[in-house]
Write a structure and sequence with these properties.
The structure holds three protein chains of three kinds. By secondary structure, chain A is an all-alpha fold. Chain A contains three helices and no strands. Chain A starts with 9 loop residues before the first helix and ends in a 12-residue tail after the last helix. Chain C has a domain of about 180 residues: Cytochrome c oxidase-like, subunit I domain (Cytochrome C Oxidase, Chain A, Up-down Bundle). Chain C is mostly helical. The chains are: A mainly alpha, B alpha+beta, C mainly alpha.
Chain lengths: ~110, ~200, ~475
């Protein structure tokens, strides 16, 4: 069910796992900031963070021997899709829940 | 500007919160029932207490890619074969003693506890005890008064906790039984005491 | 009539008077936690220090029990604090609530004295009933367990009955159910079994489901109240987001329990359940980031309590790094096999408990002091530029981050030498413990612990003096919409 990581990959795993979460937050932050402040120039940076997250996830998956088992591949795919879509979904929720009363200059795409 | 979509309404999210919580709890209950049946005493994962009558080894499993406990030939603890009831009583005394002496706030058991002293999951198989012939006696003597025995180069010592001879034997039985639990390969790469004849 | 600048109980409603008592005990126990943490940390460096008098096991037990109990007191206090305002009704069983407060506090005192003076007992069930249950975090003897359960039940009754007679809001609904869960889950830890796999299976129900589910939701309720109070956010929005967070947190957190079931004898399917839900657990944190940015952009409200606001921001960061980053770094079973039960766990535990819970309770302390002194000004331009709260905030947070990073270095060495190379044997364990990097990590941990302790002393001093003699009243947060 699992293939334990090898000693040489420890640092890679700790580092990429931390990067997954940090870049996930950076992506969400830039994404939301770009929209709320209407700074489209930040959006490429947001997606660049996601690309970083994407790469980190794959490196993590390789180092933690996730890619040789279908179940763990599914977890990796869920992470890649989930982290891409979550900020979009939450953004729509923010707009939807604040709909009445707030005069926020937001763009709904 | 979006207004009042159903998916952004308070009612929708109240219901969602309730259903998600309820659903997760139901799944957890079902998994719990299945797990409890697989980890009750006398199963392949958690052997019967009378396993202390046998040799216990920890060997690499090619298919699972980790070490797993292997129950071997008869090798009764303290040279006396126990019935299932006697074995349970002895292990119970040992488990109660580990709780009463607060072992878990220095050691880890199955990896849980404090980090001031070694993990006890495979303590029974540890090379520290020398040979398998002297192991049981060494363990009992150690538990009764560890304060004057050599531990490590750092001066960290286990205190004398008033463990009686009977309690110490119970603890050793508990440790032997615990080493037979299938922990999915934890701890990894453990080097066991020499047990071959 | 409010008396500005003086701690006058006439400034508080009935529930808040009781809350202040809970908060006072909470901060006292917080101090005990810091003290015994320093003692235990010092024993890593000087093993003979207090050997045979207050052994590591005793200090460590008091350290973590003080943690659990001060946070529980902080939460119960917070609930009583907001109860009357939220329900717009007097607390129904206030006398009973007061009585239970004193009973619980007396019981806690007896338990701690027994821990310190009796320490251990014979290997019999009577020890578990009277002295010490010997199970990490829930060491409290069985008689005290019953006391805790009865106390939580009484608070539950007070909360449910008060809301039922007054206004039953969305926050009320979540809080009442959460209190019920808080009571119910604790029962899972109140029995003896020789089978250590089953023992730890239920033990994790209490630890994980209390800490990572019911406490999180309690924080979400307090946060919701705090946002309305400090920033003047509209109720409908706050309550909708409370439900969203409950859905996300319970949705990922309840089955996230699986990441504790990798190595205790439980079947292999927990690997995939634990791995999958651990990967999901950062999603609520990402949601909070987006929502916080949205809110900050949508609103330019002045907040009426700067220390509280600063501690809420510390909460956001601490929760994100402690639970999110530190958790995910070592949660996948492929790596957790080597980090489980090392200083990694300690590193993660320290930052996560502090970031997720200590911060928000401290934020509540400041809110309580502000109103206890009659609703004084606590924004900018405080005497001395508010140096005490700023320095204590800085020292506590820096001290905690320092301790966390130090333990991470030690844990890294431990996972490599003890776990991967030597396989958790006795020799491997001490080889790692004696490694220079490990030892240095423990020294730095102790130094940052002292920094944390200084921050704590400043915090207490500040809470006792902030707003004293202040003549300006607070400017209430303006409700939008």
């Amino acid at each position: 069910m699992i293939e334990p990581a090898s000693l040489g990959n420890f640092f890679t795993i700790f580092f990429t796992a931390a990067m997954v979460i940090l870049l996930g937050a950076l992506y969400a932050l830039l994404f939301a900031y770009s929209r709320i402040r209407l700074v489209p120039a930040l959006m490429p940076l947001a997606y660049l963070s996601y690309v970083g997250l994407f790469i980190s996830t794959l490196v993590l998956a390789k180092a933690a021997n996730l890619l040789s088992h279908p179940l763990w591949v599914a977890v990796v795919v869920c992470m890649l899709v989930g982290y891409l879509l979550a900020p979009h979904a939450i953004w729509h929720l923010c707009v939807g829940t604040h709909a009445r009363g707030d005069a926020v200059p937001v763009k709904v795409s | 500007m979006a207004t009042n979509q159903w998916w952004a309404s308070e009612t929708f999210w109240r219901k969602t919160a309730i259903w998600v919580t309820g659903g997760s709890m139901v799944v957890l209950m079902l998994l719990t029932m299945d797990t409890l049946s697989q980890i009750s005493v006398g199963t392949t994962r958690v052997p019967a207490y009378s396993v202390i009558n046998n040799r216990i080894e920890y060997k690499f499993d090619e298919q699972r890619k980790v070490q797993v406990p292997v129950i071997g030939a008869k090798e009764p603890l303290f040279g006396k074969e126990l019935s299932e009831e006697e074995a349970e009583a002895l292990v119970k005394l040992g488990k109660l003693t580990t709780q009463a002496k607060n072992c878990m706030n220095c050691h880890t058991l199955l990896g849980n506890g404090a980090y001031y002293a070694p993990d006890l999951t495979k303590a029974w198989l540890d090379q520290y005890w020398g040979t398998k012939e002297v192991r049981e006696v060494q363990m009992v003597e150690f538990l009764k008064d560890p304060s004057d025995k050599l531990h490590n180069s750092m001066g960290r010592r286990m205190p004398k906790l008033g463990i009686t001879d009977e309690e110490a034997r119970g603890v050793v039985a508990f440790l032997k039984w615990m080493s037979s639990i299938d922990t999915n390969g934890f701890p990894y790469n453990f080097k066991s005491i020499e047990q071959e004849n | 009539m409010a008396t500005l600048g003086i701690c006058d109980s006439a400034n508080l409603n009935g529930g808040q008077k009781l809350a202040v008592k809970y908060f006072t005990v909470a901060i006292t126990l917080f101090g005990a936690q810091v003290l015994f943490g320093l003692l235990a940390g010092l024993q890593y460096l000087m093993p003979d220090f207090l050997y045979g008098v207050l052994d590591f096991s005793v200090n460590r037990m008091v350290h973590i029990n003080a943690l659990v109990v001060w946070m529980l007191y902080g939460f119960l206090g917070s609930v009583y604090w907001l109860l009357e305002e939220e329900s717009q009704h007097e607390v129904v069983g206030l006398k009973l609530g007061n009585l239970i407060f004193w009973v619980l506090t007396a019981a806690v005192t007896v338990v701690v004295l027994v821990y310190l003076l009796v320490q251990v007992g014979p290997g019999k069930e009577s020890t578990i009933w009277l002295i010490n249950e010997g199970r990490e975090y829930i060491e409290a003897p069985r008689w005290a367990d019953i006391g805790i359960v009865v106390s939580v039940l009484v608070v539950f009754y007070n909360v449910a009955a008060t809301f039922s007679k007054g206004r039953y809001t969305g926050i009320a609904g979540v809080l009442v159910l959460d209190m019920l869960a808080l009571f119910g889950i604790y029962l899972a830890g109140m029995f003896y079994t020789t089978n250590i796999s089953i023992d730890q299976y239920w033990w994790w129900w209490v630890i994980h489901l209390w800490v990572e589910a019911t406490w999180e939701v309690m924080v979400a309720c307090i946060m919701a109240y705090g946002l309305m109070k400090v920033l003047g956010v509209r109720r409908k929005i706050v309550e909708t987001w409370l439900y969203i967070e409950v859905a996300l947190m319970f949705g990922s957190g309840i089955l996230g329990l699986g990441h504790h079931y990798f190595w205790i004898g439980t079947p292999e399917y927990w690997f995939s359940i634990g791995g999958f839900f651990s990967a999901l657990e950062p999603i609520p944190l990402v949601a909070m980031v987006v929502h916080a940015v949205f809110d900050a952009g949508a609103r330019h409200a002045k907040n009426s309590n700067h220390p509280t606001m600063a501690w809420l921001i510390a909460h956001a960061f601490g929760n994100f790094f402690g639970a999110g980053v530190w958790g995910f770094m070592h949660t996948l079973p492929q790596i957790n096999l080597y980090t489980h039960g090392t200083q990694w766990s300690a590193s993660h535990g320290h930052l996560a408990f502090f970031g997720a819970y200590a911060t928000i309770i401290i934020a509540m302390f400041y809110l309580a002091v502000q109103h206890w002194r009659g609703g004084v000004w606590m924004s900018g331009d405080l005497p001395g530029n508010g140096w005490k709260w700023k320095w204590s905030l800085g020292l506590l947070n820096l001290g905690m981050v320092g301790m966390t990073v130090s333990m991470l270095v030690s844990g890294y060495v431990q996972s490599q030498i003890e776990r991967a190379i030597e396989g958790s044997s006795w020799i491997g364990y001490f080889a790692a413990q004696a490694h220079p990097w490990f030892v240095q990590g423990m020294w730095w941990r102790e130094l940052f612990g002292v920094m944390f302790a200084v921050g704590f002393v400043l915090l207490v001093w500040d809470l006792m003096t902030i707003g004293k003699g202040e003549k300006r009243a607070l400017v209430p947060a303006v409700s939008e919409g």
